[in-house]
Amino acid sequence: MAIERTLSIIKPDAVAKNVIGEIYTRFEKAGLKVVASKMKHLSQKEAEGFYAEHAERPFFGALVEFMTSGPVMVQVLEGENAVLTNRDLMGATNPKEADAGTIRADFAESIDANAVHGSDSTTSAAREVAYFFAATELCPR
Ligand code: RTP
Ligand code: MG
What we know:
This protein is of the alpha+beta class. It has one domain (3-42, 72-137): Nucleoside diphosphate kinase-like domain (Alpha-Beta Plaits, 2-Layer Sandwich), CATH 3.30.70.141. Helix content is 39%, strand content 20%. The chain has helices at 12-16, 20-29, 44-50, 60-67, 82-90, 103-107, 122-132; strands at residues 3-10, 33-40, 72-80, 116-118. Strands 2-3-1-4 form a 4-stranded antiparallel β-sheet. The longest helix is centred in the C-terminal third of the chain and has 11 residues, at 122-132. The radius of gyration is 14 Å and the shape is globular. Ribavirin triphosphate binds at residues 54, 59, 63, 93, 111-112, 114, 117-118, 120. Ribavirin triphosphate (RTP) binds next to strand 4. This is Nucleoside diphosphate kinase. It catalyses: a 2'-deoxyribonucleoside 5'-diphosphate + ATP = a 2'-deoxyribonucleoside 5'-triphosphate + ADP; a ribonucleoside 5'-diphosphate + ATP = a ribonucleoside 5'-triphosphate + ADP. One of its GO terms (molecular function) is metal ion binding. Homotetramer. Residues 3-140 form the Nucleoside diphosphate kinase-like domain.
């Protein structure tokens, strides 16, 4: 299997719940390494640019409002099949549909406040990692 990188965000609801460490533990137990991380309070422009693919969707305004409502923790995860491994750990977008034991099932309240973001493909991952991190900020090992 290929070693990949993926962009993960612990969203404002999960940061407010003080479960950053519990979520990091899930990454580590699944064999994903944190190779870069930063806490940030996204500006409206940063959130709109990050979720630009959803700009025409009816939920876009609510998504941007939520993502700017408090600080987020942004990290690059590296490991075998990192994109899909992280999506499996996250669970379905709507926590009501997320499998038991996934991050969203355990920590998310609603489809809007759903605890985490994860890149959905290696192509998205490349764009999203570069959106938040300079190449020199990544520390693979
Ligand atoms: P994310 O990008 O945040 O990792 O979530 P995702 O891939 O599971 O879902 P995506 O389709 O990319 O949607 C991005 C975020 O928009 C909100 N959303 N609301 N009300 C709705 O129908 C709806 N659909 C999506 C969610 O907060 C989702 O995480
Ligand atoms: Mg998505």
